[in-house]
Amino acid sequence: MPRIALATYDPGAEPGHDTDLPVLVRALGDAGAEAEARHWDDPDADWAGYDLVVIRSTWDYSWRLGEFTAWVERVGALTRLANPAAVVRWNTDKRYLGDLAAAGVPTVPTRYIAPGEPADLPEDHEYVVKPVSGAGARFAARYTPGERDTALRQLARMHADGCTAMVQPYVRDIDVSGERALQFFGGGLLHASRKGAVLTPGTPYDADKVAHPELRPWQPTKAERAVAERALAAVPGGSGLLYARVDLVDGEDGEPRLMELELVEPNLFLWLHPDSLPRVTRAILAAVGQD
What we know:
5-stranded antiparallel β-sheet, 4-stranded parallel β-sheet, 27% helix
């Protein structure tokens, strides 16, 4: 009987937000595994005692990046970790978008402003400022050229915390066609979803945001699948991926562009795609040699 840990975050006194987690634990148990959810920062967890640790909903990691990456390295040295530690470490810093663009993957144009560098902000179009390490639109905001002073205050706050900022043009088609998330698991396309715009005009960067508004199932186009597969093929060490979510938007030319590549702890949206649960269960068991 394989022992499998699904790593999640500690919600404290609040209910956990990963509604898929208990469903997946139960499905793995019904399939013959000894599976349990464990807080990634649990000091009493014996990670070496598991045959596989699957990072599922460590959704506080970007607040504690150094601690989290140290945990990833430690667990990856003790047992099999999915996704692999090297891939997770690479994906926690959104400067990976530059690596993928250099490999020929169509991406949303992105510039980076590190602490101490000039605040070179667009003067002729809407844009987004967000940290290179973040999740759920944390510390992200949308600006017009006339809101430069507000954007500069955000940059100053981020730089004071030692954080590098990334600046992208606001892709206007998000307001019409939304953002598409193609979920891969076990080496193949699992399902896809579409969500509406996360960033609304005037919302402060430090305000809480709805990460997946108006989420609904989506049938990906051939062009979307092609960009997603191209992005995954360009991931360093990507042959060891168990799961991936590829977030796409349409560029000014109407063609799909990579917005983000989620290889750390993407929400699986199994509640929206319940038919995917058996495939996810089989892929996890296959990762420990059980099917």
